[in-house]
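Subject: for your reference before the review

Hello V.,

The reviewers asked for a structural picture of the protein, and I figured it would be easier to keep everything in one thread rather than splitting it across files. Below is the amino acid sequence we used in the manuscript, unchanged from the supplementary table.
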Amino acid sequence: MTVLRARALEYLRMPFWAYYPLPSITRGLLIAFVAVALLLDSIVRATNDGTTGVESAIVTTSITVSIALFAWRPPVATIVLSVAAIAAGITGVVDSVLLGAAILGLAAFTCSAALTAVYAISWTTWLIAIVLRPGSGVQPLGAVIIAFLGVASLLIGLAIRNQYTKAQMLTTQLEATEREVAEQLRHERDLIADELHDIVAHEITIVALHAAVLERTEDRTTRSQSQTAIREAAVQALTDIRRVLGMVRGEENLTPDRLPSPDGLPGTIAVVTKELEQAGIEVTVDVPDDVRLPSASMVALIRVIRESGTNVLKHATGARHARIALRVERGWARLEFSDDSPPARTAGLPTSGYGIMRLQERFRLFGGSFRAARGPQGWVVSASLPLES
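And here is what came back from the structure prediction:
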């Protein structure tokens, strides 16, 4: 009942000139009906020896032609029909009064409640006028039957309109649901792509770098450290791959607040520091001990630290020192990851720029900023985001 009441109120509040356009198939059938009706009317008038009055011919033809206007502008057709009905009532034309009753449903389906009421009043006036006019030939019982048919036509038009409105609403809801599902799928694909990027770009980078070290050195201590690093990175990569497969199978929820490191920010910094120090890079960490950040902000900063650490290993060959600094002040978190690598020195590993692009998108959505560029002393990654986003 609530839905029906809402639709009824929407119909009653519909602007006077608003209308629902007829479907293309219905328009074609309507035009064909009008053409056939005009043809038959012309044949009848041509064979009745001119007994039909001029007023009747004008009114009947006007009503028939006006029906075709429903195919393009239903409000215009309804106004013309209303005028024709009043003219027919004044002149006492009886022809087409039944057709006028059938048009009530068409007006109710296409036009506003106010415009439909205007036509219903005009047609009712026409019907009453011909009943009261002496010699019209329309008996009260016949008028009741015509009135009943008009009411039935009106109810049928309203019922069809209700179903049409319901179908439109369901179509809109279906389109909205499809867009929502597509957005959710895109979001999940992005999360899985981020996870795969972290695995390939981070763990596999460590494996490749230490494998290169094994090829170039015979020092047993260095080789042992590289072998340990390769083993740990490989085990971590397998663990992460299993986790991503679990996400794909639906065994793990895909949420943007899921931390990529089980130990959060301190654990991530410790892991990145260890990996850089194994590569011979001294790391200075300047992060408050009691830092508290929203979960989503923590995820964003962790990804910056992991991506920056990976890029130092891949592209900052020759770096001897790196610095990780975090400041939380005035409702903003500001992270800086810098190194002292000389220009034009890389480890020769391929790059796609995917990680930097995704970080720029993430911080843009947060209303923050992200920048990675070479400074006078080396590469500097600066990221900031509001904590109330």
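For the response letter, the relevant points are probably these. Residues 256-260 have pLDDT under 50 and may be disordered. Residues 260-389 form a domain with the Heat Shock Protein 90 fold (CATH 3.30.565.10).

Happy to draft the paragraph if you're swamped.

O.
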